[in-house]
Each structure stands twice: as C-alpha cells, then as structure tokens.
C-alpha cells in the first residue's frame, strides 16, 4: 500500500469532515516528535475541518531535556572527559553554554548516531573516560540497556537522561488547565510497551487514544478513528499501527529495560517534575552512572529563555506561531528555545513546513 497516496488521503480528509460535522471543537494531541514532523511536512492540519485541531505534545526528547542536565554534560566535557551526544542536543544552551560551545572552547565533544558509536570511541581511547549523554524515551533507552548488557569498555560512562513516557501523558491529562480530547499515541514507544499499555489513561480520564504510524495515511486514519470515538462517546485504545505494534509490546526488550532501569521522578523541561517518569539505573548498572562517578556540580539555570513559549507549546496550550520570538529572533539557524533546535521540535517544523 502507498501510505502517501493523495487520493486516499483526500478521501480520509472528507471522511473526517463528515464525521466531525456538528461536533464541538476537538483538540487532538500527537505526542510523538516523529508525528509532529509528519503532520507539518505533509500539511495535514490544512486537510482537517476547523473543529478538529492537531496540537503537538512533549514527545521531542531534545525539547524536554532540562537545561540542568545539559549543563552537567558541559561540566563533564570541560573537566576533560570525551563526551558523546546526538547532534541536536549539542546545540541546546544551558547555564554553562551548549556542548558545541564547549567544543569550540577545546572540549572533546563528539556527535554520534548511537550509543554503540560512543562505545567504540571509548574502546579506541582506553586511557580516557568517555561519557555518553543518553536522552530519549523507551525507544532509545532500550538501546542503552542492550549496550550496557553487552560488556562495554571499563572507561565508559552514561549521563542518564532517559525518561518513561506514559507518566508524561498521564500528567498532561491530570492538568486542570489543559484540554486534550484525544491522543495519537507514539508509534516508536508503542513497539516496546504495546498498545495495551495506554488503557489505564482511557479508563482514568475517559479519553480516546489511537496508536499510529508515521506516514500521512497513518496519521489521517488515526484522526478519523479518534473523531469517530468522540462522536460515539467512546473512550478506548485502538491500534492503527497493527503492522508493527502488538497489544503486548516487546516482552524481551521490556525485560531487558526492567533489569537496567528503575522508576523514579524526573524533571521535564517546560513540564516540571513528573512522578514515575525517571529511569535511574538499577544497582547492577550503577557503576556506569556518570553522575555518581564524576559528581558534576552545576547550578540550576532557567529552563526557558525570556520570551520563549516552548513550555506552553510542549503542553499543547500555545501554537508555535503565537510565540513572539517565532521566526523572528528564534529560527533553526539561531534557535532560542529547545522546540526550535530539534528536528522533532514543534517550532522547528512549523517554521520549516507550515
């Protein structure tokens, strides 16, 4: 099947309009950064009726990594360790500057595509500590777990910034000042946790949810499924992404992650501390913890620059274009807020495609 077939997408657009006719405004949140990219890149918002609103959530890992964690990475780099990270994160500022600025000042900061690449750097530099800045949700956390279970080099450490994602979805629905009528659940995370993992949210808050893939046809079908649920007064979890996501998820990967990570509280940029979203190392893997081994000393800086609306963008309260910095002082070339830095950020995609 061609998941970008214009004729099929147009038919879905008409079906959504027909199903939504006469209904009050519905705010549907796509909580995955890859969905944010797809929605903006393929102009899907323009294909929806006025009463169906798609808003972005906190599914961009770079966007929600607090500045204090980035400052820890910069501190470690300036103390002489090799620091590896992903390209977008290296551009995000902190109270100590960005990792790229530290690199310009002489620190050994290297951009990698995976934690395996970081491990190879450690093997080639046995006399130096290599610290990998590990960010992301279950999708990337599983790769960290797999690598740490594969006899990594003794000089290898991890600055663990991983987060469990479902507690953030729970926290958003629990916020009294937010209105979310339905979730397009993250496809990548769902391959691990399974579609059944979201049931508690529908039961607790009466919110419909659809697990979706990342092609335009996937997203439009997910919107139609959500609107149909709202039209019928239903609140359940449906799986549009059946070609990849199973109800029970990936038991082997979840087991490996359970051995490697525990559950704690974690700070999310723009959202504050979310209970149960932290992924601290279990005792067995504590010796890989860069915070324990190196004890970075950083002061808490402001998470959001003055005038930046990223905190409300991450909650779906504000559209990127409503930020007074958007496209003016803040651009992908000179980003001020984290949502403009990352290729998965709502502001970055809105300015690039919409």
How are the elements arranged and paired?
Layout: H1 6-20, E1 26-30, H2 33-41, E2 52-56, H3 61-64, H4 67-78, E3 82-85, H5 99-104, E4 109-111, H6 115-124, E5 130-136, H7 138-148, E6 156-162, H8 166-174, E7 182-185, H9 187-193, H10 199-205, E8 209-211, H11 216-232, E9 237-239, H12 251-260, E10 264-268, E11 272-278, H13 290-294, H14 310-314, H15 338-341, H16 346-353
Parallel strand pairs: 1-2, 1-7, 3-4, 3-5, 5-6, 7-8, 8-9
Antiparallel strand pairs: 10-11
Helix pairs in contact: 1-11, 2-16, 7-12
Give the tags.
354 residues, five-stranded parallel β-sheet, four-stranded parallel β-sheet, 3 domains, 15% strand, globular, Rossmann fold, 11 strands, 16 helices, alpha/beta
Explain what the structure shows.
The chain has 354 residues and is an alpha/beta fold. It folds into three domains: 26-57 and 175-239, HypD, alpha/beta domain 1 (Rossmann fold); 62-164 and 263-294, HypD, alpha/beta domain 2 (Rossmann fold), CATH 3.40.50; 310-353, no CATH class. Helices cover 39% and strands 15% of the residues. It contains 16 helices and eleven strands. The strands form three sheets. Strands 2-1-7-8-9 form a five-stranded parallel beta sheet. It has a four-stranded parallel beta sheet with strand order 4-3-5-6, sandwiched between helices. A two-stranded antiparallel sheet has the order 10-11. Strand 10 and strand 11 form a beta hairpin. Helix 1 runs parallel beside helix 11 (216-232), helix 2 packs parallel to helix 16 and helix 7 packs across helix 12 (251-260). The longest helix has 17 residues, at 216-232. The radius of gyration is 20 Å and the shape is globular.
């Amino acid at each position: 099947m061609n998941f970008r077939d214009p004729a099929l997408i147009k038919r879905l657009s008409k079906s959504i309009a027909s199903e939504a006719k006469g209904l009050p405004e519905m705010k549907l949140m796509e909580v995955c950064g890859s969905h944010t990219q797809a929605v903006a890149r393929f102009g899907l918002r323009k294909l929806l009726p006025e009463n169906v609103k798609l808003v972005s959530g906190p599914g961009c890992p770079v966007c929600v990594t607090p500045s204090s964690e980035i400052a820890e990475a910069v501190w470690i780099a300036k103390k002489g360790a090799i620091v590896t990270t992903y390209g977008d994160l290296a551009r995000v500022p902190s109270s100590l500057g960005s990792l790229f600025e530290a690199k310009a000042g002489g620190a050994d900061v290297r951009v990698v595509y995976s934690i395996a690449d970081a491990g190879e750097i450690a093997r080639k530099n046995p006399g130096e500590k290599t610290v990998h800045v590990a960010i992301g949700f279950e999708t990337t956390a599983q790769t960290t777990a797999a690598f740490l279970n594969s006899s990594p080099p003794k000089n290898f450490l991890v600055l663990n910034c991983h987060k469990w994602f479902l507690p953030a979805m729970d926290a958003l629905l629990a916020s009294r000042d937010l209105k979310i009528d339905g979730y397009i659940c993250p496809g990548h995370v769902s391959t691990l946790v399974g579609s059944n993992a979201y049931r508690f949210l529908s039961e607790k808050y009466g919110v419909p949810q659809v697990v979706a893939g990342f092609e335009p046809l996937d997203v439009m079908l997910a919107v139609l499924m959500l609107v149909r649920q709202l039209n019928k007064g239903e609140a359940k979890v449906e799986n549009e992404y059946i070609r990849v996501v199973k109800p029970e998820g990936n038991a082997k990967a979840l087991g490996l992650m359970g051995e490697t990570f525990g559950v704690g509280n974690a700070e999310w940029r723009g959202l504050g501390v979310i209970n149960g979203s932290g992924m601290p190392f279990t005792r067995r893997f504590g010796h890989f913890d860069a915070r324990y081994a190196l004890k970075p000393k950083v002061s808490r800086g402001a998470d959001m620059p003055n005038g930046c609306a990223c905190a409300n963008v991450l909650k779906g309260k504000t559209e990127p274009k409503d930020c007074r910095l958007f496209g003016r002082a803040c651009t992908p070339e000179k980003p001020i807020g984290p949502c403009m830095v990352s290729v998965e950020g709502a502001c970055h995609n809105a300015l690039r495609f919409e």
